[in-house]
Amino acid sequence: MRRPAANSLTRVAVVGAGFIADFHLEILRATPQVEVVAVCDADLVKAQSSARRHKVPHAVASIAELAAMKIDVAHVLVPPNLHLAVTRELLELGIGAFVEKPLALSTADARTLTELAEQRDVVLGVNHNAAFHPAFQHLLERLRSGEIGRVEHVRVCLSVPLRQLDAGDFSHWMFREPRNIIFEQCPHPFAQLVELVGGVRVLHTTMLGSRELQPGQLFHERWVVAGRGERGSVELFLHFGAAFTRSTLEVLGSDGSLEADLFHNQLAGESKTLYLDFWNSFLAGWRRGGELRKSARRVLTDYLKLTLGLGQRQDAFFAGMRGSIRAFHAAYRAGTQLPADGRTGEQVLAWCEAATSWIQERAAPTITIPPAGAARPGEVVVLGGTGFIGKRVLAKLVERGVPFTAVVRRTHALPPFLVEAAQRGQARLVRGSLEDSSSLREALTGAACVLQLATGNGPTWETVQRAMVDGTRAVAELALERGVKRFVFASTIAALYLGADCGQKLIADSLDTDPQPDGRSLYARGKIATEKALVELQRTKGLPLVILRPGVVVGRGTALQHSGLGLWVRDNHCVGWGAGDTPLPLVWVDDVAEALVRAALHRTDELHGKALNLCANVDLSAAQTVAALREVTGRALHFHPRSLAISQTMEIGKWLVKKAGGRKDAAFPSYRDIKSRSLAVPFACDLARGVLGWKPLEERRAFVEHVLAAMTVDDTTPNIG
């Protein structure tokens, strides 16, 4: 296996600039003898953004461009279905690969990659970071010391929430086939099982719960998997999309047991003693409690050290990632055995295959989507049409028989009603995004209206400005160039200042926004800046602009933990933005979609240059809404009122700790933003009600039963009709 010279740095590239790339790049830039040379992504804009954030010199759109850069190793961070093709291309170019789990989607493909790496004499490793989880590493140390004797049985509980499932985003790879969830989530516990009991021998699966996400899209959410490995038996309980997180691994040995709580990063054990049973039982509980307290103190101490700038980041996920990445690069440079090579990746995949062997292979349904073609008379172009509100908008356009274009990032896992509309010619489907306006030029040509629902959010102001503000401005300018007759922008009431001291008793429809945007959250600041940019285009170039500002939008597909209700410190504990006793500007998502469609199709220009509030008068406060959710869901949901002054004091305390720790990027907490989140002033919605004839659902009992209760319904497919 070729490796870099002892006096040179390992030249590294990352392929794939998605969520996980940020972790790899942060760790790589602090890894000794490693030089990050390039970020590669088919979406060059994403690659460039990632490279800027992490100070990487090059951003490219193809793997072929890496060959000339003398890359030693590329970290493969693309979706799992692309691992085989991307890794093979790298290996054939003589570039080593460190692949995010899983290595591939079958043991046969993993073997192909391993053999290719051996033929080309290049390194091939897999990021099984769960094997480097701190609590698991401590468990291995105690096992190897002989503390609990011979390993006989391993019991795993993996009960985890899925953000995409809660949000109704079923386009993610893990939802495309019933088996995918195991290949996405279970390489973590299976990599640990390989360490503990070796390869799989026999495995049986019992399905405890399944549901249909969309027609024909089956998702298995609760599993029991049991069987034998080479050196012991195993049992796993798996729950994907759980409300309560529990991730544990218990090893039963011939002379004791060890249990790692992987979520809380704690470890405790029990072994035999020479004492009588009553005293042995007392010692077992006493010692277990002591070990848990020690683990808890260590977690707290590590966090405080990090906050004060006295230590490095030690949270379990990051520590596991760092351990895995650094161990790979150290072994690669030394020419020693990799912590997880292609053979290890194949063993992990064998566990995945055994757990899903009962699932019958089925061909994915063939969906024929016609070419986009030209805009039709009255065409409505919708950006962000597959989002929470956007799906309802498209459904209402389908219901009305309006020709429309849906601009989407991906054309897989689309709502069936949208595919059907495309197949019968009512809908055009165009791949594009706010950041790539060139892809939208043809889509907008001849359109009657553009509905801009895409958010374009980000973790920094620079990202928000580029994605949300600049992206929307570019689309609006393109709409002007293409002769679009109306541009409807979906903003938010967060663009306004809504504290009790705003000087208004009723927030009327107005183009005015918060005059102090720098004191607001990134999202609110982005919406304010976007509105201002569009209004400037309206005043200087005649953009036919209509702005709609929905309130606290709820309905099927909304997470229970809506930030409009308060700060959710846990998924069932909500701390109020104040006492939580004033009525909230709640609004049903279907009513928001109805208003957007009415604005798009309105026959006159009387709303051009106007901003419309979209809030219903439901007469439910934050405390009452949480109580209603508790009643309809059966969840132990709790609302905790807290004064704004106390919240601000606590935020300042956090800021002082960060500053003491040397955090130069720590911004002083904005009291203005906290006050605005209290939503203390009611809204008038005269234009929506008077001009558009908008009549939102407002009767309190019906709202609770029809809207809040729907937030817990499993099937999040939009209603049509």
Helix and strand arrangement:
Elements: E1 10-15, H1 19-29, E2 34-40, H2 44-53, E3 58-60, E4 73-76, H3 83-92, E5 96-100, H4 107-120, E6 124-127, H5 134-144, E7 151-160, H6 163-166, H7 180-185, H8 187-197, E8 200-214, E9 217-229, E10 232-240, E11 246-253, E12 256-261, E13 266-271, H9 277-307, H10 316-334, H11 342-356, E14 380-383, H12 388-400, E15 404-408, H13 416-423, E16 427-431, H14 441-444, E17 449-452, H15 461-482, E18 486-490, H16 522-541, E19 545-550, E20 552-554, E21 567-570, E22 573-575, E23 586-588, H17 589-601, E24 610-614, H18 622-633, E25 638-640, H19 644-660, H20 671-677, H21 686-690, H22 700-708
Parallel strand pairs: 1-2, 1-4, 2-3, 4-5, 5-6, 7-10, 14-15, 14-17, 15-16, 17-18, 18-19, 19-24, 20-23, 22-25
Antiparallel strand pairs: 7-11, 8-9, 9-10, 11-12, 12-13, 21-22
CATH class of one domain: Alpha Beta
The assigned structural class equals: alpha/beta
CATH homology group of one domain: Dihydrodipicolinate Reductase, domain 2
Estimate the helix proportion, in percent: 25-40%
End-to-end Cα distance: 62 Å
Order of strands, main sheet, comes to 8-9-10-7-11-12-13
Could you tell me the radius of gyration in angstroms?
28 Å
Q: What coarse outline follows from CA principal-axis ratios?
A: globular
CATH-scheme architecture of one domain:
2-Layer Sandwich
Average pLDDT reading: 90
The percent range for strand residues is 15-25%
Low-confidence region ranges: 714-721
Annotation, overall tally of beta strands: 25
- Number of helical runs? 22
The description of the largest β-sheet is: 7 strands, mixed
* CATH topology descriptor of one domain: Dihydrodipicolinate Reductase, domain 2
